[in-house]
């Protein structure tokens, strides 16, 4: 029932009230984007201000009359509040306005329900919706609240409300059991990657910052990307090869938003664990958004909540094509470590710099040495080529390969243990590859 959608957008009234007692105010323009992403057809946007929300209706009597008049004049089917409403406030508002009322949390849950595609994603959304709906059942069954007594009227001892609560509780247990299996499968995959020493890089960031576009640019994939909030809901993993480092796994994850409902964070914990277990976080930021500083803070708050704040983080300022006179570049700290990269995922500008910064953070200090391997170690040479460690190579009359390599120190020690010999005074290496090989490598680079 949670994934049934109307054929056309619902005529909606948007309500945003500035509350003086709230430290962090919701963004009115972002709320309108949320409504449009959910498929609503906003016909009026009512704003106001209060020192404290009303316990019964959230808004005052005068503002409530204004909303009711707008609902009547536009024949609205839905009123959306850019706030978290209590179950009693929702119920009281619906009694006065004679239409459905939905708060910010319910709106975000509805968008997630539309975007879910995988079985896991649908389970996660349904769990969050059930947890949210369990406190709001009473409004639908006020005519069945009381149990009747007397001869011939005694039943099973449960009202319809209690039956619904019990069924929801059972469904929540079933979903948690299924998601437990998913969590186990993901952990098994992470253990396999750790045994194979495959690094994991996770994309995080505010919704609509361009994570999926960046993911496609780095992996040559065609993951769904759109200019809308929460376009990506199901996480995607792809293998990438980083020059002078080797293979890694890049994970695209769900975007964050201000005041992300806690029930969603809990429901998507199996997916978000990929972020907490990553070796590096690429924090994608919409550089063209005026509120990007606040968005960075919101993302970091969620990362703290899922215990991923200790993972090394590289900020990727995306969409520089929308800025004037902004060139791709790497910003470094006082130690020369990359901290921020400016790119455009749409045009591809700066993606080579991003890969360079990723390699530096993952590999640490790179060393350039010349090593020798025998003709019987062709497989080792092939592995070095696959990881992009070989800068140049030559072969002598005995069939011994002389390889000039650029690689992390740890990998050099591992290479020497595998039988390679370090040439202490390297001579200039002559590249013996034929011209057609150079042309082919340049074409496919």
Explain how this protein is built:
There is one protein chain. The protein is 40% helix and 21% strand. The chain contains 14 helices and 15 strands. It has three domains: 11-113, GTPase HflX, N-terminal domain (Rossmann fold), CATH 3.40.50.11060; 198-363, Rossmann fold, CATH 3.40.50; 366-444, Alpha-Beta Plaits, CATH 3.30.70. α4 (104-115) runs antiparallel to α5 (119-133). The chain has 445 residues and is of the alpha/beta class.
Summary keywords:
single chain, 445 residues, alpha/beta, Rossmann fold, Alpha-Beta Plaits, 3 domains, 7-stranded mixed beta sheet, 4-stranded parallel beta sheet, 40% helix, elongated, disordered N terminus
The span between the termini is 50 Å
Unreliably modeled segments: 1-8, 141-147, 149-156
Strand arrangement in the largest pleated sheet:
6-7-5-8-9-11-10
Number of helices: 14
> CATH architecture of the largest domain, please?
3-Layer(aba) Sandwich
Return Rg in Å. Answer: 28 Å
The major β-sheet equals: 7 strands, mixed
Task: Tally the beta strands.
Answer: 15
- Beta-strand percent range: 15-25%
CATH class of the largest domain: Alpha Beta
Shape summary: elongated
Average pLDDT works out at 79
Question: Which class of secondary structure composition applies to the elements?
Answer: alpha/beta
The count of domains is 3
Q: What string gives the helices and strands in order?
A: EHEHEHEHHHEHEEHHEHEEEHEHEEHEH
How is the CATH topology of the largest domain named? Answer: Rossmann fold
CATH superfamily of the largest domain: P-loop containing nucleotide triphosphate hydrolases
Helix content: 25-40%
